[in-house]
Amino acid sequence: MATVSDDELITAATDVLNPHRVGDRLFGDVGSALVTAAGNVYRGVCIDTGSGTGFCAEHAAVAAMVTAREYRIAKIVAVWRSDEGLLHVLPPCGRCREFVRQIDPGNIGTEVVLGRGNSTPLRELLPFNEWPAPLDGAP
Predict the structure, then answer these.
(1) Which residues are CB-contacts of 99 (< 8 A; sequence separation ≥ 6)?
(2) How many CB atoms sit inside 10 A of residue 85's CB?
(3) Each residue of 48-96: pLDDT tens digit?
């Protein structure tokens, strides 16, 4: 597998930023990039629509990956640029954390980039992710 650095992944996510306003909604202001266990990079942007029908940039990147018939994520990042032009790495929201986990059981070990030189495994961001044991013995 070709190694993709955090900076390269941040750049890949930054390259897809393309904010576009439609009424009071903003599309493409958050970009995400992921690298799979096979070394392929997939990217996506967020879509903010009304009534909760939109999705995060991580979802778009994961959908591109699944479309290509891959499921194991080695590393993922999301970025946003402020009105002042400052780039920020965004931690995944809870929905994205769970989404990544459910795509493949091994994704619990996905490295989540939280900044330059700062990443952590998904399991650290999504504690208590195992299905709980029953409280009582088997009936």
Answers:
(1) 58, 59, 62
(2) 6
(3) 988 888 999 999 999 999 999 999 999 999 999 999 999 999 999 999 9
Radius of gyration of the chain (CA): 16
Which pLDDT value is given to residue 132? Answer: 79
pLDDT tens across 91-128, in order? 999 999 999 999 999 999 999 999 999 999 999 999 88
Q: Which long-range contacts (CB under 8 A, 24 or more apart) does 58-61 make?
A: 58/32, 58/34, 58/92, 58/96, 58/99, 58/100, 59/96, 59/99, 60/32, 61/32, 61/33, 61/34
Strand pairing of 111-115 and 87-89?
A: unpaired
Query: What does DSSP assign to residue 109?
Result: G
Q: How many CB atoms lie within 10 A of CB 11?
A: 14
With a CB cutoff of 8 Å and minimum separation 6, the contacts of 82 are 88
CATH number of this structure's domain 6-125 = 3.40.140.10
Element (H, E) at 50: none
For every residue of 89-102, which 3-state class applies, written as one string?
ECCCCHHHHHHHHH
